[in-house]
Amino acid sequence: MKPSYSVNELKNQIPELAFKPSLFLSLFYFFFDIGILALIYLAAFHLNSVWFLPFFWFASGTMMWALFVVGHDCGHGSFSQIRWLNFFIGHLAHTPILVPFHGWKVSHRTHHNNTGNIDKDESWHPLTEDQYKNADSLTLFARFKLFLFVFPLYLFVRSTGRDGSHFHPNSPLFPNGERKNALTSTIWILGMVSFLAWVVWQYGFLFFITYYFIPYTVFVVWLSLVTYLHHTDISLPWYRDNAWNYVNGALSTIDRSYGIFESIHHNIGTHVVHHLFPTIPHYRLKLAKQGLKEYLGEDYRETKESVWVSLFKSMKECIVVPNEGTKVFYKKPDLTQN
């Protein structure tokens, strides 16, 4: 199947400015996120009130997620045109939230290069009817009930049908040329884990749970929720074999609105543009969307539906895809078949 559009055709609909990262703006958002996160922690320590903790947990976890998105730009090279700076800032953004920057960068690159491909996509790819039928109960429980919490496990073992750890340099995830950088990221993570172990030893396990683990869990939920919703909807096609191509795959994502959080997590809801052109910085995504949406018309997928309505609808309806077919859609499993 030939693509409906070419990459260059779509690129011509976007102002050239959108593809140019601003080092000033990129650094501003990075330090702004760190500053807000630091203020939230200072307020929590200063007030030392149990009544403030729920706000602290949600706010700090949300800002960890925002910081992750900045590191995400570093992984795509859209933070700056300076490779070593992208590598350095990416580690500064991801290491405190226990994400191995280079390992994640490689798997995320795989996701972008194969978006919408049932057999090759990296994250939130669907199970076929046969895979669902043959899966053990623990796998099904983790995938369909605990899916908002299993990101840390994914970093160790990847997802169903994929093999490799994000931490081990000799993992099947990494080509030979990536192993040195993978080791570097793992060393950063070991340093963070050592720091957290010191925090537990110095201040106690309850302190660690209160001031790190719960905010970290909020971050994990944000990451999983947003990624799931951008790639899981009854209207989104999945492709096999020659029916898949880069443009069709990128157009099989969907934009969603997160209300007041849209600017906080750096416009990541503008996701179709991001998948077509991942080198566009987050602060240029809305600019890029204007011309592209007008040009694509109905082929540009977006929804203003409530995030919670979409979540529960997708949890109910988006379970499996047919075993055969080159362009397929999610459906409920046929439980009447043996």
- The structural class is mainly alpha
Mean of residue pLDDT?
Answer: 92
Helix content: 55-70%
Question: Which outline best applies?
Answer: globular
**How far apart are the termini?**
34 Å
Beta-strand proportion: under 5%
The radius of gyration over CA amounts to 20 Å
The largest sheet is:
2 strands, parallel
Side-by-side strand order of the widest sheet: 1-5
Q: What is the H-and-E element order?
A: HHHHHEHHHHHEHEHHHEHEE
In total, how many beta strands?
6
Total DSSP helices: 15
Spans of 5+ residues with little confidence (pLDDT < 50)? Answer: none
How are the secondary structure elements laid out?
Blueprint: H1 7-11, H2 23-47, H3 53-76, H4 83-94, H5 101-113, E1 127-128, H6 129-134, H7 137-144, H8 151-157, H9 179-203, H10 205-231, E2 237-239, H11 246-250, E3 255-256, H12 261-264, H13 271-276, H14 285-296, E4 302-303, H15 307-317, E5 320-321, E6 327-329
Parallel strand pairs: 1-5, 3-4
Antiparallel strand pairs: 2-6
